[in-house]
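A.,

Following up on our hallway conversation. Structure tokens first:
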């Protein structure tokens, strides 16, 4: 697991697309941006999870705070202690 933070990026764009599926993902991201809790974005490798997470952060009320990236690529070794601490369950 690795963790890094990034500053605010005022030039960030969520992507380019006009398909109904892409526009639905953007609509859902805008809904999730209002949630006052951490968001977990899951999908297959190379699908743009980090771009979507960055977009959610950028349009959220917390956009002035650091954007924290947690890469759980080796999820099998990601023990329950950290899982509980990050996702608060």
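Then the amino acids I'd put at each of the 89 positions:
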């Amino acid at each position: 697991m690795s963790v890094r933070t990034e500053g605010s990026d005022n030039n960030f764009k969520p992507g380019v697309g006009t398909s109904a599926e892409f526009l639905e993902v953007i609509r859902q991201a805008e809904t999730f941006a209002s949630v006052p809790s951490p968001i977990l974005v899951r999908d297959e490798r190379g699908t743009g999870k980090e771009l979507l997470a960055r977009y959610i952060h950028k349009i959220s009320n917390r956009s002035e705070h650091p954007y924290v990236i947690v890469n759980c690529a080796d999820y099998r070794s990601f023990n329950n202690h950290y899982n509980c601490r990050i996702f608060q369950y």
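Confidence is low (pLDDT under 50) at residues 1-5. Curious whether your intuition agrees with the design.

B.
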